[in-house]
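I hope you will forgive my troubling you with a question about protein structure. The matter concerns a single protein, recorded as an amino acid sequence and a row of backbone structure tokens. Please examine both parts with care and let me know of anything in them that strikes you as inconsistent. Here, with my thanks, is the record as I have it:
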Amino acid sequence: MNIIKKPASTPELVAAVSGDLTPKERLIAEAVLAEPTLLAFGTVSDLADRVGTSRPTVVRFANKLGFDGYTRLQRHARNELSHQLSRPSERIRHNDEKARPARAALNSAIASVFSAIEGKRLATLSEPIVRADNIWILSGETSRAGAHAFHSGLSMVRPGVRLLEEHSLSADLGNAGQGDAAVVFDFYRYRRQVIKAAGILADSGVKIIAITDNPLSPLVELAHNWCEIEVPAIGPFDSSVPVVMIAEMLVSQVAKDLQEEATARIDRIEALWETSEVFL
């Protein structure tokens, strides 16, 4: 009978070779153990720059841990994170032990939104949305509430807004091109389909505005503009509050920037609602 062993964790791999690490390699080890996402989503250069060493040293570090190059080590780290950090069942199981109180977690997340849009940052995010011919909205599952809020609000203040859905994704991606912009919401664990679709849009000349949670998010390297917000766990699931909040703030800024056009569009929609007796 074959026994399938659980793959060794990164801390276990580091511990096994700690006596053979050079001083620079020890700095790398300390960095990736302190911040696992640095290894999981950073490039060789990101890691080398963080610890003040060279790319070959990072590759040698990966070899010492038993991997044939940095890419293999990174794949291991990503798989490790995906199993450790975001399973709702684990959050329920360890809720009393590890979770921050919901109020503290939400306060911190709300503060991160205000930090992300301070100064002229919100206007910078709004600018390509105002100027674009069409707006494409793309989202992972846990950020759908924010994407829907953004789609609902933005459709009121400007035309050409489309929320990308899985069943029509390929056809819609074929309609996007130069002059368009896409607002992409996604957070750890990053959805493969979202990242691939964002890459296709970027390759088509669409400007990507990314709302994500980490400078090492795979969306950042695709983005024309991006901002980082905190998305905490509330109970077993990621909170929708900060995502909806930044979506509403961004719609508000676009409406302000468009002003006359937005006002005229809202008035037309209100008149149509009245004519069709939408409301009691």
Q: What stands out?
A: The longest strand covers residues 207-212. The mean pLDDT is 86.
